[in-house]
Amino acid sequence: MRYGLAVLAAGFTALLSFTLLALAIGTDYWYIIDVNRANHTGPDDLSSHSGLWRIIEGTNRSSLIPSFTANMSSLSEAERHLLGLHKVVVIMLPLSLVLLVFGWIFGLVSSLACSPFLLAGAGSYFLFCSLFTLTAVSIYIKYSNQAMDEFQRIVSPENLANVDVSFGWSFASAWLSYSLEVATGLLLMLAARIIQMKGRYDSGVAIAML
Is the pTM higher than 0.70? Predict the structure, then answer.
């Protein structure tokens, strides 16, 4: 692969990764609860979908997730643990987004400088950023599973039979963003390797011509 192509591909994947992560953070389709309306006789739609910041119930009812404003003394131990996990997620994902901005700038400067050391450093930086995203998404999976366990403990098995739960496209966007962060890091390291090999080739040619 040529250096220019590797750098352009890295820039594209970095920009796409940032866009997908920003989309995931700002949308409300991380977790979807779908209640079978055929088995529900009430007037209300009990289905809901949630994001990092709020829960949308039915068609137009929304409520904020009180991760930082809840009265912890009035909550059970399990509820406090769930809010603690949620706090970690809503801190780490925006932090990862900010780190991606600096990574894009670092990668741009490195590619213009054509320095294998800077490019390798930028690649390592993006791999480090991907760990933030991966950790946050993994914690969200743990948070969702534990929340579902609490829900199953409260709701009867008969009612649970009418409920389908799944992760939504916002969650998938965050996963895809993580994959693109890894791809960006590897592409920048490939670009560093190409420059390094080109330097050795040029040195060998110069020595041969002496």
Answer: yes
More confident residue, 125 or 65: 125
The predicted structure's pLDDT at residue 199: 55
Burial status of residue 177 (CB atoms within 10 A of its CB: 0-12, 13-18, 19 or more)? buried
Give the C-alpha separation, 196 to 102, whole Å.
Answer: 24
Phi-psi region of 114 (alpha: psi -120 to 50; beta: other; left: phi over 0): left
DSSP 116-135: HHHHHHHHHHHHHHHHHHHH
Contact between 52 and 92 (Cβ < 8 Å): no
Q: How many whole angstroms separate alpha carbon 38 and alpha carbon 130?
A: 43
Element (H, E) at 137: helix 116-154
Write out the DSSP string of 52-71.
SSEEEETTTEEEE--TTTS-
For residues 173 and 51, is the Cβ–Cβ distance under 8 A? no
Joined together, the tokens standing for residue 209 give 């011509």
- The pLDDT assigned to 200 comes to 53
φ/ψ of 54, rounded to 5, equals: -150, 165
Asked whether the beta carbons of 163 and 35 are under 8 A apart, the reply is yes
- Does position 163 have pLDDT exceeding 90, yes or no? no
What's phi and psi for 201, nearest 5 deg? Answer: -65, -45
Query: How far is Cα 169 from Cα 176, in angstroms, rounded to an integer?
Result: 10
